[in-house]
Specification:
six-stranded mixed β-sheet, Rossmann fold, single chain, Alpha-Beta Plaits, about 25% strand, four-stranded antiparallel β-sheet, 2 domains, alpha/beta
């Protein structure tokens, strides 16, 4: 488990992380989201003890990561593909990392297979695409089979096949009982793997909860198609219902399908389609950002 406890960090007199607390539980993928500059990467760097917190602490399985007898078995970290050494080969770098951690060098070949870099292991990292670098970085993070995993924007640069691979990999690590903390701007993909979501904005946690809680609170809506769509929209709006164009119909917000259908029917409309819709993680993310900016509240 990764336990972030009331951490604070300032740079140049500006507080970029302000009393952030949350947990990434064992057996779950915790999605870590927020706009650029929200403080996500700083929090991840504090978890890895690359950056020291001004106040608060981050515990990994009950103690700071750096104090573990074998830190790399406690926490696997991938924060940036830019730090990989261009002049080394993929397999050469993994073998070097294995020796530095006291891991059998045979583990390097296992990891090449694990992340799907077969055929490219003997090429210099300088020749790797961003997606290949991302895979290699994940391989290094998994070198010592850690019980916790931190990944910062691992989807960047991946093609569709690699994204599907990453999806299965991340969920497999979590289902094996490990904690995964995954930062990403790719909401559609994150929505397919995350069990819980923590959202930062301007250095503070503004929303947290299970994926279901995150995407459904205050987000009731239904999809409507009608023979006379303009008349249906007019009837809904006359009742104070927000209705916006979507696909071949409209989305009606904060209303149950039964009531929406009754409004259209009473106005003489004929429905072609009526269904309840669950918003996506991306929908909820932008709704939460908008609410925070409109109210100035940081929950």
């Amino acid at each position: 488990m990764i336990d972030v406890q009331d951490v604070v960090k300032s740079y140049g007199g500006r507080r970029v992380v302000d009393r952030v607390s949350f947990r990434a539980e064992d057996g779950l993928v915790t999605g870590f989201v927020g706009p650029n500059g929200a403080g996500k990467s700083t929090v991840l760097r504090m978890a890895a003890q690359i950056t020291r917190a001004d106040e608060g602490r981050v515990l990994v399985d009950g103690e700071p990561f750096g104090q573990a007898p074998l830190p790399a078995r406690r926490l696997g970290i991938f924060l940036s593909a830019e730090t990989l050494p261009d002049r080394m080969t993929g397999i050469g770098f993994l073998r070097y990392a294995a020796r530095s951690q006291g891991v059998p060098v045979a583990r390097a070949a296992e990891l090449i297979g694990l992340v799907g870099l077969e055929g490219a292991e003997s090429k210099r990292i300088a020749s790797y695409s961003l997606g290949m670098r991302q895979r290699l970085g994940i391989a290094v993070a998994m070198l010592c089979e850690p019980s916790n995993l931190v990944l910062d924007e691992p989807i960047n640069g991946l093609d569709p096949d690699a994204i599907r691979w990453l999806r299965g990999f991340v969920t497999g690590v979590a289902r094996a009982g490990n904690a995964v903390l995954l930062s990403s701007h790719h909401m559609a993909e994150l929505g397919l793997v995350a069990d819980r979501v923590v959202m930062l904005d301007r250095g503070r946690v503004v929303r947290t909860g299970s994926l279901d809680e995150f995407v459904t609170v205050g987000q009731r809506r239904c999809y409507i198609e009608a023979l006379d769509l303009d008349a249906a929209v007019a009837a809904l709006r006359a009742e104070g219902v927000r209705a916006e164009p979507s696909r071949q119909g409209v989305l009606a917000f904060d209303i149950e399908p039964e009531r929406a259908g009754a409004i259209v029917y009473r106005a003489g409309g004929t429905l072609r389609h009526l269904s309840s819709e669950t918003p996506s993680l991306e929908d909820s993310y932008f709704a939460s950002l908008g609410a925070a900016e409109a109210t100035g509240e940081q929950r």
